[in-house]
Amino acid sequence: MARAARIVVYGTDQYSGANELVTALLEEPFAPHSAKARVRDRWKNADESAGLRVRYGSTTQDGEATLSVRSSWLQQFPIPVEIHELPPPSTTEGSPSHAKPLFSADIPVIVCNPFTTNLSELFADSSIPWTHSNAILVVTSSSAASSALLQRLQASAPKSLTVLFVDPERALSALSVLSTDPGSASSVQRYQDGFVESRVSEVSATISQNLAAFKDSTEGGILNALRTQNALDLVSDSLYACRRMVMAVEYETDRVRKGASSLRSQMEEFKAKIRSDVLGTEEKPEVKESLERARVGVKGTMDFLTGWRMLWKVDDIADTVNASVDRSWCRGLEDKLIFQTGRLSVTQNFLAGAANALVLSFPKTSTFHSPVLQNTLAQLRSQPTYAVNPATLTQPIHARRIQLTYPTSTLHRSAQRTVLGMSGSVLGGISIAWAGWAEHLGILGSLGLGLEAETAAGLGMFSAVAGIWYSIGRWEKAKRRWWRDWDRVGEGLERDLRSTLDRVVANQVLVVPTTACSGLRDMIAKREDEVAQLKDEITTLEQYCTK
């Protein structure tokens, strides 16, 4: 028996009308009742899980899952054809290969009912060879296609797919009318009108056109051309499936990029606001204002320590100044920094949770599912230095406050030297005055200074006053030196606070989301390189197949 072209008919569900379509194609209008019943009851004894092969011939040629019928439809084409009718998916539920024979078909015919089948999901089904050059989609409809249905098909169907709108039920009704009274002219007319309106003949015309495209001098030439085209179509369909997978990967990559970009945007927004929230703006600098308030508080103490008052507190100078510094040194700023530390901790938990949720959102089958990145984030969160505590931001204030103890100790020693200088000046003046009077009284004899008593007393008083004045001047100079140290320490405080805040934000608050974004960015770049390479290979193969 000559080889035949394979026409595989697949109904998307039990309501698709595939059974009715095959019946309308094979049934002869003037055939005896037994022949018609053989076609209509062809599934009665067939294994519905395996499908049915319908070919031209006598009943003696039937085998397992094979039905031989003498239908002129099977002989009307340039070469013999046979129909492989597949059962609907409902009868093979759970089998992922229910439409597998479509890939070995010379002409695959997919039949669907638009009211029971979602067209978008149907075209997304990779188990159907939509890119086959001879593929035909038969949409069962009792009327012409609506504009909405046409738009859906144009948006989803591949451009190479042939789409036909057929009403098999009307064709079967027309055949039934003719069977009731085949000798009546009106029955023949009603049959002809009904069969034409069913548009079933369009299926035959399309199949004939597809086969005529491979017309050759011999049947073997047509079949060989069909099989060659089928092989190319299989490769093309595989490439189409690959391109769809690449598109799915690109979609996933874009989704990951958007997620990482959204997380990074939150981080950048936080970094843009946190410095002004914590340290103030140029119009209202928190650190400078706090230092000014501290200066006012300490200035009262320093102004109180005049040259004369300092004499009675010389041993308590360091303690007095240190106590004043402790009371006044940026206490308001320290309280604000402790409050901002709580905000930093809340933001840290929020962004870390968002980063962790993003990394854990990918299924295990995804390329972006990375246990290594998940473990890295978990390790960062478990480190002792990860938590933001109240002393995190205030450490520079304490450090700068401690730095002031050194100039305060120097000030204390200056006070002691001042007291010693004043005491020495007073004792020296008294000694000169006493020496003058002693000489006047003849007590010193030849050891006298040679001065009158009044002159010696004046010189002694002048020496004492000059010494005291000089010592007080040195004390005031020591205090000015201490204020210069204060200014230097204050200028370094703002610099230290900015550096500490930036370090805390980078190494503690944002370390988890930054690491997550960095890891995802590397995976995205690697995936994009792989996708670009695959697209180039697919394009090369597609160009080869079209030659």
Automatic annotation (TrEMBL):
- The answer, when asked if Coiled coil is one of the entry's keywords, is yes
Q: Which segments of the protein form a coiled coil according to its record?
A: 517-544
Q: What sections of the protein cross the membrane?
A: 419-437, 457-475
Keywords attached to this entry: Coiled coil, Membrane, Transmembrane, Transmembrane helix
What is the protein name for this chain? Uncharacterized protein
Q: Source species, please?
A: Antrodiella citrinella
Q: What is the lineage of its organism?
A: Eukaryota, Fungi, Dikarya, Basidiomycota, Agaricomycotina
